[in-house]
Amino acid sequence: MLRRVLLASLLLLTTPALARGDEIDAVPADALIGHAYFSENTPSVVLFISVRARPVRILWVAFDGSERPYAELRQGEQVLQPTFLAHRWIVRDAGDGTPLEGFIATRAAARSNGAPQIALIR
Q1: Beta pairing class for 43-50 and 117-121
Q2: Contact 45/88 with Cβ under 8 angstroms?
Q3: Model pLDDT, residue 15
Q4: Mean pLDDT by groups of 10 residues along the chain of 122 residues
Q5: Of 16, 43, 45, 65, most Cβ neighbours within 10 A?
Q6: What is the CATH number of domain 2-121?
Q7: Residue extents of the structural domains in the chain
Q8: What pLDDT is recorded for position 31?
Q9: Using CA atoms, how far apart are residues 84 and 24, in angstroms rounded to an integer?
Q10: Is residue 77 a contact partner of residue 121, using CB atoms and an 8 Å limit?
Q11: 41: Cβ contacts below 8 Å, ≥ 6 apart
């Protein structure tokens, strides 16, 4: 366990994308679950990084409010996810499905010359 925490910490310190990107503030997952929304066609990129001890699932919240699975991460793992401005993402516990956090791609990534926004899953 300590090795995983150290690996995750090292990953956060040495990943070049982290130095160039802005971290997205998490929002309560319940605020995004089941709600429809509209989005622009402005491309964005989110780098999801898990530092949680338990595996998590990353799901895109479709425009009608339904959820679509995209990735599963263990502690210290990351995934670079192309997306669009205002797209919503839910992070759930991979074991019991409990909603943990939500993230919304913001305009900062669209202005960053391709540097991803960072969604740190705590």
Answers
A1: parallel
A2: no
A3: 46
A4: 39 44 86 77 92 98 96 98 94 98 82 82 96
A5: 45
A6: 2.60.40.780
A7: 2-121
A8: 83
A9: 14
A10: no
A11: 84
User: pLDDT value at position 42?
Assistant: 85
Compute the Cα dihedral for 66, 103, 105, 69 and give only its sign. Answer: negative
Q: Residue 12 has what pLDDT?
A: 44
In the block, residue with structure tokens 């898990």: 50
Residue 86 near residue 105, CB atoms below 8 Å: yes
